[in-house]
Amino acid sequence: MTGSIYMAANGALAYQKRLQVLSNNLANANTVGFKQDQSHFQTYYLSEFLKRDTPMTTDRGVSQAPSFWFRLNTYTDHTQGPLKETGNRLDLAINGRGFFCVQTPQGIQYTRNGNFTLSADGLLITPQGWPVLGQSGEIVIERQSAFTDPQGHDFLVDQSGNVSVDGNIVDKFRIVDFENSDNLEKVGDSSFIPRSPNMVESPATDFTLSQGVVELSNVNALQMMTELIEVHRGFESYQKVIRSIDEVNSKIINEVGGPQ
Asked: Considering only CA atoms, which of 200, 204, 102 is closest in space to residue 160?
């Protein structure tokens, strides 16, 4: 295989992975608290790539490969999404930096999805049924009838995260942040976990909470559609290059390399 077809195949593969990233973003354009993934290409010279990944054996091996290689890297964009007023007092949104803490069977997970509800036991929970954590543990609302009060004065959450029922503070939301949120790993349902056990959470300081509001996905659907079209065309271009190179190689083998 010639170096040219190596490069074209590598380019097509990178565009295919980028297509998957964009498709996932677009599929979650209406998912509350979802954070889009971004991608970028990084170029490596072949000498670096072989030195790091595979031993260089013969000159022939080098001549059959491109002089450089590029890899697609992805990262999560934690930019805040737009806020939408719902009127549901169990819906909460973080303005600024920080994450809600959620207790799951796999341990504590972190999310910006404040689309909460109430369990039969009076626990504040996620749509998946996991308890939302406060400073004292699971947030318990003893008087469930408070949520049906038409005046809306019984259950309140202030901007600092204090939870009060009938004017009495019962807990405070545990809002945390990380020094480098880029190192958080997605685990589904708009939730994250640290990639490394060395990552330590700290109390968030630069935030306010809004009640009756949710944070929407930070995906710009129009932009994603535009990029999808661009990437699809780029992928098709690489496919055409691969076919052209293959046809040239076949012609050389059949016409030039055949019996004289």
From this structure: 204
| Cβ partners under 8 Å of residue 42, min gap 6 | 70, 71, 72, 73
Angle formed by the axes of helices 3-27 and 221-251, nearest 10° = 160
Convert the pLDDT of each residue in 101-146 to its tens digit: 999 999 999 999 999 999 988 899 999 999 999 999 999 986 555 5
What residues does each domain of the chain span?
Answer: 3-78+219-256, 83-215
Find residue 212's DSSP bridge partners. none
Three-state DSSP class for 98?
Answer: coil
Q: Within 13 Å and on the Cβ side, how many CA atoms surround 55?
A: 1
Instruction: Tell me what pLDDT residue 171 has.
Output: 95
Global pTM value: 0.76
Residue 150 structure tokens: 């038409």
CA–CA distances in Å: residue 165 to residues 138, 139, 144, 162, 228: 15, 12, 10, 10, 48
Nearest one of 112, 77, 85, 109 to 98, comparing CA atoms: 112
- The phi and psi torsions of 100 (rounded to 5 degrees) equal -75, 150
Q: In this structure, are residues 207 and 95 in contact, taking their beta carbons and an 8 Å threshold? A: yes
| Cα gap 35→23, rounded to integer Å | 13
Helix (H) or strand (E) holding 5: helix 3-27
